[in-house]
Specification:
Serine Threonine Protein Phosphatase 5, Tetratricopeptide repeat, 13 helices, 79% helix, 3 domains, mainly alpha, 298 residues
Length: 298
């Protein structure tokens, strides 16, 4: 009798937790990340003993929402909590453990904690290679993000090798016209731009742009990101007349897709305003200014 009563009570708590999580999901669609994190946190607190993996899922959502809100210090505890639960329940070499490691590594990267991020990315990569295979898309995702970390550290040769391997996997497994392939092309182009290899960067950005437009449509926010990054390449070369139309189109797409108050919209709007000011000062569009911000994809 007691066991049945406990099962009913646990079911009620799980139902209440799921209700909080749904409220969090709604706030995520409204870009209210901090409010979403509060709901996910309450959901995790409501989960009864014996449903630890459910709790881990809510903790992960809480940490991700806090990270998107820019509250990196607060995001660490729930992401670590999710990792601890998953590692204990699923084992240290399980793909879910690799995913949790990957998420925590991404947070450390955002905080500039490169050594900690690299260690976790490397461990995640090793698990995914062994558990999923060296050519699995999840393996490619970790390779891509590890490459971005190496790029941030100025390790360009390592970053290029990782991006190239990631690109090869995506092209072979998902196809040459998949959005994930385009994202990796975009990131590799950014690496070449950092090194002043503008012709190589432009070719990759333009290929990524074509893939995004065909696969996602002309009004998708990911297409706008690629437009913004191609504009950044032209900006770096002082080709303002080619950069401005791209930014204008990117801004229009992002405002419609994400809303006028989204942080990515603010980045593109600021880039466009800066370029237009420079055009006024330099009508020929041949002078260089401060490099615009990039809306990176991961």
């Amino acid at each position: 009798m007691f066991k049945k009563h406990q099962e009913i009570e646990d079911g009620q708590f799980l139902s209440a937790a799921a209700s909080e999580a749904r409220a969090g999901d709604l706030k995520m669609t409204q870009l209210a990340y901090a409010a979403a994190a509060e709901h996910f946190g309450r959901a995790a607190e409501l989960v009864p003993a014996g449903s630890e993996l459910v709790k881990a899922g809510y903790l992960h959502q809480q940490g991700s929402a806090l990270s998107l809100a820019g509250k990196y210090a607060e995001a660490e505890a729930p992401l670590k909590g999710a990792l601890d639960i998953i590692e204990q329940r699923m084992g240290p070499d399980h793909p879910d453990t690799a995913a949790a490691l990957h998420n925590l590594a991404g947070l450390y990267h955002a905080q500039g904690k490169h050594d900690q991020a690299e260690s976790l990315f490397q461990r995640s990569l090793k698990i995914r290679e062994l558990a999923l295979g060296p050519d699995h898309p999840d393996t490619a995702t970790t390779l891509n993000n590890l490459a971005l970390l190496c790029r941030a550290q100025g390790k360009y040769d390592q970053a290029e090798a990782l991006h190239q391997r990631s690109l090869q996997i995506y092209e072979q497994v998902l196809g040459p016209d998949h959005p994930h392939t385009a994202t990796t092309l975009n990131n590799l182009a950014g690496l070449y731009q950092d090194q002043g290899k503008y012709d190589q960067a432009e070719a990759l950005h333009r290929r990524a742009l074509q893939i995004m437009e065909q696969a996602l449509g002309p009004d998708h926010s990911s297409l706008a990101t690629t437009l913004n990054n191609l504009a950044g390449l032209y900006y770096a070369q002082g080709k303002y007349d080619q950069a401005v139309p791209l930014l204008q189109r990117a801004l229009q797409i992002m405002e419609q897709a994400l809303g006028p108050d989204h942080p990515k919209v603010a980045i593109v709007r600021g880039n466009l305003a800066g370029l237009q000011a420079l055009q006024t000062k330099a009508p020929t569009g041949k002078q260089r200014g401060k490099r615009p911000k990039k809306a990176k994809k991961r």
